[in-house]
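Figure 2 data, in text form.
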Amino acid sequence: MAVDVQTRHVESAGAAELFISAVPTAADDLTTTARELFESVRDQLNARSARIVQEWIIAPAASMAELSRVRGEIYGDLDDGVPPSLLCCRPGRTGALAAVAVHAIACDSHIQAIEVAGAPRGRIVRTTRLAYVTVSGVSMSSAPGREAQARAMLTEAEKALGTLGGDFLSVPRTWMWLGDILAWYDAFNSVRNSFFTERGILRPDGSAFMPASTGIGLGPADSAGCSMDLVAVIDPAGAIERLSAGGRQHSAYEYGSAFSRASRAPTPAGTTVYVSGTASIDESGATTHIGDAPGQIETTIENVRAVLRDMNVRDDDVVQTIAYCKTPDVERAFDEFKHRLDWPWITCICDICRPDLLFEIEATAMVKTCDLTR
């Protein structure tokens, strides 16, 4: 096969969660590779009677139309009308397609599509123990300018959560997809900081209830300046644990970025730990190993593992990881490291949030809860 599909499966009473990481093994014909990849994902879903709750297609912009066409052809009724997030990267080792990442759930409860800004952009799963929400691909390209788009994006996501009885305090994890991130990351942070302050996520007494997050230079395929994905736990309220500082890294908010290093939340099959996008940054917030890709890669991996330890999570609990590499040379350097950990790696080429950062990792870990009947 021309694709490598790794699935992590966690099952508890009443639900199962699947994290599927599907990547090409080499640059090949796009349509042939896409068919093999989506067929493999489809077969994994059907084998466990699972439904998609969140999906990312990561590829160069020129590939997106064909990938969307093949996906629709292969998935059939697995496609519930909620589109995947289409995230544009630069070509890397695998050429016209970097990866497809899927989070899926199998349970007795109905998985219902929800709308954001008048379009199907998310799903809600209600079980006996929680109401779990995903929102994907929210962008507001009609707003005049990037900052206005960022605020409108956050506002529309908040409105959608509000219709379900939640708000941003219900959110353990966000992903901020920022085209041309190096040109406007500071401005984006200013918008997010202001929005979070107005909503009581950042408070005058210094307390903060920030989600874990990734802000990365994967541009949305609709050419908007930014888009976002999130997960939320609407019920039970107050169930999210946040780690503002982790390992050797202090709070990211000390250098202007409003996110926690990690968060923990109940999800349908257990407990999920979300580790934010993490890079080679020291206690003071400074970039380390400037110009040294292997040094940044090794330090980044150490920083992620330190956060996992702080969250009492083991390496073998990791269910999905994405490595963001600034250039193909960094990707090649990472190839020397990634086999040291048995993690399901997805790798893509894009800008990181600082010019001197060459590499970033995010991770998701799934900790099984033995008794979900209470």
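Caption note: The longest strand covers residues 3-12.
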